[in-house]
What does this fold into?
Amino acid sequence: MKISLSWLKEYIPVTHTVEEIANKVSLTGIESSPVKLGEGLDKLVVGHITSIKPHPDSDHLNICTVDVGEDEDIQIVCGAPNVADGQYVIVARHGAHLPEGNRIKRGKIRGVESNGMICGLDEIGVPEKYVPEAYHNGIYVFPEAEKTGANALELLGLTDEMVDLDITPNRADTLGMNGAAWEIGATYDEKPEIKKATIDESKVVKSSDVTAEVNDEKLVPDFLLRELKGVTVGESPLWMQRRLWNQNIQPVNNIIDSANYVMIEYGQPIQAYDLDKLQENKVVVRNAKSGEKFTLEDDTEKVLSHNDLIVASGSQILGIAGVAGSINARVTKDTKNVLLESAVFDGASVRKSAQRHDLRGDASNRFEKGVDNGNVSESLVRASQLVDELAKVESISEEIVGSKTEAKPTVIEGSISHINHLMGLSLSSDEIMNIFDRLGFEADLNGDKVTVTIPTRRFDMSIEADLIEEVIRIYGYENLKGTLPAGMETKGGYSAKREFSNKLRNVLLGQGLDEVINFALLSKEEVNDFNIKDTNLTKLLHPMTEDHEYLRTSLIPGLINNVAYNQARNNDDIAIFEQSRIFDRSQGEDRPNEVEYISGAISGNVTNDSWNTTSKEVDFYDVKGIVEELLSFTNAKAHFEYIATNQISNLHPGQSAFITADGQRVGYIGKLHPSYQSDHNVNDTFVFELNVDELFDLNKRRVQSQPAPKYPSVSRDLAILVEKDIESGQIVNDIFANGGKYLIDANIFDLYQGSHVKPGHKSLGYHLVFQNPNDTLTDETVEKAFDVIKDSLVQKFNVEIR
It folds into this structure.
């Protein structure tokens, strides 16, 4: 909500700059920022076109003689289609500065001298969509004669200074100038003078043509109408237009503009209908029938749901309640009789309809946050008053009631001592009572007890804590004295689980992977892609789009989208990971469990060409090495194994494995299936996913420092011929199981399959290292252990020792 300083001065005396006001209001809890219109613009004046003639060398240009308040008129060539003799217009003089660095200079246009420019509103800083429709494709014409040479920016309100309030959802009272005046006034100990709306009682008639009906008063607690007959629709005065476009509202005509003006003034949306266009003499607020169609004022058609609350006359839909009006009863220049509506609609219903039909606007924003039901009737009176002043109304009906709820102020009880105790202050009762008075609250003090009556505009307040908040923020957070904490103190820091998670993250960062953060919502297809645990899916009741319907069951789909996005932009070498939560919902449970996972995706080259290296594409073992490094930092007292599998449908059946810890499955690793890669437009990509919660729960090893060994190690190489289906991991496990206490390492260094090797077999070479930390190993001891290893391999795997 942008608060105009010139408008605010009508309520309270303003002597401070917008910067000072914005800073002061921000310190009370409503974030604010200063806005200065028309900065950098100059030499824009009012001009009076005294004559006009066609350009001799153009079929659309005109030569205008313009009085700009100087001794002699100036000549300006103008191409606007609506330029005419006698108009009062905006003139940019020679040397004038316009938005975006444009500068007007004297020159010739097709051989005719032009000493300036006649401007449209959009050319001097008003966004085109807020310019009155009549001036969209031409220059702006002042509705009344103005003094020539006067500052056009001041007349148009484009030198105004404003305070932009970024309100929180609970402070909807500041979405109107009246409420904002109370808020800013309280900050400076100034009570606003708000004039009560009145209408000419001589024009009020008891009879009315229309009746009103509300089907569900819980959704529509207040619905009031007034008929205004014999109106003359025309252009609004400039003072109203400029206040509207400075609030990002397009002026239309004096009826619609009056309704919008009241919305900005009171924070209460007002709707105007052409009374003669109603299908019946009855207006009903009801839920729409599924499939009913509704046409907006811009001819866009919407298909309604049974959850949409609508205003209707017979089968004619006048609008979606609190959201948008229909073209059916729009007020136009030919309108003679008007029906004004002021209401309170259920905020949740308005929000859902606005979201469902993508029609969020100024009115729906206010209904969503809440409007003051104590202002509904007076806002309608104010709108009638403005229409009467601007459109020369012949008669005004009495209030037509569809539903009406008594506006009851909230009464809160508290105590001065308790307020001071919770604030940590020692304010006197007079100081606290003064703060309540500044806010417009009625307060009664009885000893230490205080009873505060809250006006209906502050419907965000209901308990004593709200009173305390008001006292402290008006007193000033900046006035609080800093104190040291007293009593027991606890040492800050992360939990053990958070420390563990951070360690895993840092390991992957250290290995060159980049961290990404993805949405937790996926489409139905994506959420099933890597649902390895076959968990029940969790669908949102009101998803934003079809692509964001379900809570994820794996981090991999999001990573694949990241890979596809980058590779589509020729960034082929990708190494990324994400550490976040997936949602696991068991059968019969309403809410899913949030389980932390860490997942990665690697594609492209792991090394690139350089003077001493050649490029190398990532393979399964590169990614397995990353995972092994990651698992080593878990410090788990567990034996990790990689068990080949073809059960994960979207992974390559020959290059995927489950990862287990002492037989417990904690994750998986593998290459994406070729068909899955093709469907998602990605190159060869390897992925892994680990359950962080399960890794954290594993028993931890005790880490002890050991001195460097004093005695040398002894190595042996072992070459075997084995059936190709036997995994190397099985061989290594058996080597360690039979190698004795001095075997410290066993690494595969050779794999060969091809000629000179029996069909269905492979040749493996292992490097074994033995070491005794306390003595020098003898060949006899090493050979004995080596023989045991070979015998075991022959017996268990039928290997041939080579």
Observations:
- DSSP finds 20 helices and 41 strands in the chain.
- The chain has a mean pLDDT of 92.
